[in-house]
Design a protein that fits this description.
Layout lengths: L2 H15 L1 H7 L4 H23 L3 H16 L8 H12 L4 H16 L6 H23 L8 H18 L1 H6 L7 H6 L4 H5 L5 H22 L7 H23 L13 H11 L1
């Protein structure tokens, strides 16, 4: 299998699973774009093991072993993702710990179902999403990657909080509660009400509190956008603005996060990106 095919395969994965990221990072120069596809394919494979694997613990352990072998210079298998990722690691000074931490984050979903404090949620958000910022930073801004680490993590955390606020119903179906339970209880809203999909002023107040944290992190992430090379600025801003727009859509739909997955339409995405160009 040649590298070009491997990258093409990775592109098909992101195109199928995340139109938002695909639309944003398509704006990168071709070589950098392909590298981001490969990183996304890695993240997607770990995520799919946890959410859809028949024996997720065993499969994740095998994947961890494959990554350890990969870091030692071996190609774990002939899967296109590993072939593309090998080319990425040979081209860029990648953050190997960030990839390892991403696996740890996905492993958390196998061992922890309920989150009680904002601190717990932010820690989880670092492992499953802040790490992604670190993983692609050497591709997007190789000269300033050390200076941008904190804000790259912030962007990943903001996106993960957005995911959590969008996917409350979907996560409940999987037996998971990521919205901080202590915050719900403090507002006088019970887990039983959450499971009954009750949307009231108490629920909305907690939802908005977490959304405010996400907005703060988006703002932090964008404060250093000038430190990215010109060719990376619009893609990074697009990813941030497209994801942040999900929060606006949820508000417009009356905070209905239980029965329907809210999303930004293709027309809305195009409008947002055109304003950033």
């Amino acid at each position: 299998m040649n590298v070009a095919y491997a990258y093409h395969h990775c592109e098909s994965i992101i195109k199928e699973n995340s139109q938002t990221f695909y639309k944003a990072f398509t704006l990168l120069p071709p070589d950098k774009r392909k590298a981001v596809w490969a990183v996304y394919a890695f993240c997607r494979q770990v995520d799919d093991i946890v959410d859809e694997g028949r024996s997720p613990k065993q499969e994740l352990l095998k994947f961890k072993q494959q990554y350890a072998s990969f870091i030692n210079g071996n190609l774990p298998s002939s899967q296109p993702m590993w072939i593309a990722l090998q080319d990425v690691f040979q081209t860029y000074e990648m953050d190997t710990k960030a990839f390892h931490d991403m696996i740890i984050g996905q492993e958390m979903d196998l061992n922890k179902k309920n989150y009680f404090t904002e601190k717990e949620v932010l820690n989880y958000s670092y492992y499953v999403a802040g790490t992604v910022g670190l993983m692609i930073l050497p591709i997007l801004a190789p000269k300033n990657k050390e200076k941008l680490k904190k804000d790259a993590i912030a962007l990943g955390q903001a996106m993960q909080l957005t995911n959590i606020l969008r996917d409350i119903g979907e996560d409940l179906d999987r037996g998971r509660i990521y919205i901080p339970i202590h915050k719900l209880e403090k507002a006088g809203y019970s887990v039983e009400e959450l499971k009954k999909h009750i949307i009231n002023i108490k629920f909305i107040s907690v939802w908005e509190e977490l959304a405010l944290k996400a907005e703060f992190l988006y703002k932090q992430a964008m404060s250093s956008i000038h430190m990215y090379p010109l060719h990376s600025r619009v893609p990074v801003k697009s990813a941030a603005y497209l994801y942040r727009a999900i929060l606006y859509v949820i508000r417009q739909k009356g905070y209905n996060v239980f029965k329907k997955k809210q999303y930004v339409t293709n027309n809305e995405k195009s409008q947002i990106i055109s304003q950033l160009m």
